Amino acid sequence: MRTTPTRGRRLVAPVAVGAAGVLALTACGGSGFEDGGDDAAATGGGSLSILIGSSGDAETDAVEAAVAAWSEESGVDATVQVASDLTQELSQGFASGDPADVFYVSADSFQTYAANGSLHPYGADLDNADDFYPSLVEQFSHDGELVCAPKDFSTLALLINTTAWEAAGLTDDDVPTTWEELADVAGRLTTDGQTGLAFSGEYARVGAFLAQAGGSLTNADGTEATADSPENVEGLTYVQELLTSGSAAYATDLGTGWGGEAFGTGAAAMTIEGNWITGAMENDYPDVEYQVAQLPAGPAGQGTLQFTNCWGVAADSANQADAVDLVQHLTSTDQQLAFAEAFGVMPSVQSAADGWRELFPEMTAFIDSADFAQNVVNAQGAADVITDFNAQLEGLKTGDPAAILGSVQTNLQAVLDENAS
């Protein structure tokens, strides 16, 4: 059991992503999804503007350095701007017909942008298109076509307070690999002042248990809602059992804002979070000793959720060829590893996985979980459904899992049907 917290390399969230928290955008301007722009737009020859939503100085500095290196080599002027509200600023740019050339796109806003013609679909032009994780390609495809290059990604894993673990008489052999074992160690870690396991009461965390039960909110091609499946009911029922046992709790029920705070303050001995938590641990709770493990398997095997964003290129950009060339540079194996070392993100290309493991040997559970990670729902208009799902999850402890999922089923199917019409 490791008893030294990770230090020296900071892992932080690249951008707030996930199914909850970003409302579906209203229809924006654009030249039409099928329209790749006129000849002048395709040939480039101007300067590029890049709009990002940064997690902090480390990310901003790294992106600016990478863009500057490309600019010097290509001879194309390029400027990076950090958005204060990325969604709002992108929406304004699209509506005015003068968006940034290159920009971050979150998974839950992607389908809206793709459907309303805001994005130039350049995925087939990338030399490294086959190197991206297939599940990330799926997340950023529209009508079967890769539209934009996955920028990076995060997965969920189990963080364990090693001091509490050892105090409970637990060893490496006790790291849970099944639901039964997770419930057992959560109970053994629960004391008068500490809950065994805490996590945020939202789809972006609870959804991992649905995946472990073999469930998902939609079918494979995203055309049919499957929220009320027996597998999902089983997964949500297990979460309810954890909550009612007293050995697990939502972070907010412990007086904390999220799983990282519950874990860092000692209110919980374990939590379920993404690799962005390690930056908070280093900055806010540097004395907490912990280790990271893959999430335990459920009845259907291992499962987790992944969160990602992509490099969008505007359909209205007058410099699409240069923009795509820049994205090619930014998503290269070496550059993605440089980003990882600078601010901790996990590369979206499979060729960089071993390099990431070498940089962060104690965090490998996160990147190894990519093999069984499930995308969050990103259907156009689904954000409001997820917001309602999250509200219902707040009452899961005394609620009816089947009824909750039945409501999600009705609402999500209505959205999917509207998209298909």
- Approximate strand percentage: 15-25%
- SSE pattern: HEHEHEHHEEEHHEHHEHEHEEHHEHHEHH
Pairing-aware structural class of the strands and helices?
A: alpha/beta
What's the number of domains?
A: 2
Q: How would a textbook summarize the main sheet?
A: 11 strands, mixed
What coarse outline follows from CA principal-axis ratios? Answer: globular
The CATH class of the largest domain is Alpha Beta
Number-wise, the strands total 13
What is the tally of helical segments? 17
Task: Kindly state the percentage of residues in helix.
Answer: 40-55%
N-end to C-end Cα span:
54 Å
Shape-level CATH architecture of the largest domain: 3-Layer(aba) Sandwich
Can you give the mean pLDDT? 89
CATH topology of the largest domain: D-Maltodextrin-Binding Protein, domain 2
Runs with pLDDT <50, length 5+? 1-44
